[in-house]
Amino acid sequence: MHRLLAPLALLQLAVFATPVLAHSSVDIGGGFAAGLMHPVLGWDHVAAMVAVGLWGAFLGNPALWLLPVIFPLVMAVGGVLGLAGVALPAVEIGIAVSALVLGILILLAVRLPLWLAGTIVGAFAIFHGHAHGTELPHAASPLAYSLGFVISTGLLHLAGIAFGLLTASHLGRQLVRGLGGVIAAAGTLFLIQAL
Fold first, then answer.
1. What pTM, to 2 d.p., does this model score?
2. 3-state secondary structure of 56
């Protein structure tokens, strides 16, 4: 029982302590390094971006590579909207829902047509990009910052793909689906925080 308490306490601390860090302009004084760190400082971003890679791996080719390409491309559009000052309602709720929905899709092993999977991933990417874009004017070097967060996003997608490739075995599929459940649970907590 005690072996379970430490990881649960750590998960609770991580979930409740860091989403705020990813969405404040505090410490955005840098360029590339700040952009690289931005997605990994918010567990809401980490959960959703890893989930994109997991779900892509679960769906197989071409989703394996297409979903992780769609996300940063559409995220860049969301970033431009945020940079331009275009209002997007409920950005934090959209980010939280992205983790919740993607986690559920993985948990339930939902196989959607590629066009629909891409649309879902793209819609969620708008919210993540907008969050980045609204903070971009605070960066000392906006281009370097943007490059950093796109690379970091890609690395998180690759981490999801790496875990997702475990689906080649029955046990691996169960582990990946379980990870989807963890992501969905985290998304629920993020949503509660955002409301």
1. 0.82
2. helix
Name the packing angle between helices 43-59 and 114-135 (round to 10°): 160
In whole angstroms, give the CA distance from residue 64 to residue 182. Answer: 21
The alpha carbons of the chain give a radius of gyration, in whole angstroms, of 16
Q: Tell me how many degrees the CA angle 102-106-111 measures, rounded to the nearest 5.
A: 100
The pair of three-digit structure tokens given for residue 86, joined into one six-digit string: 């275009």
Q: Are the CB atoms for 129 and 88 separated by under 8 Å?
A: no
Tell me: the pLDDT tens digits for 34-62? 888 888 888 999 999 999 999 999 999 99
Residue 79 in contact with residue 137, Cβ under 8 Å?
no
Please tell me the number of Cα atoms within 13 Å of 53 on its side-chain side. 21
Instruction: Encode pLDDT of 13-30 as tens digits.
Output: 444 444 444 444 444 456
CB of 27 closer than 8 Å to CB of 143: no
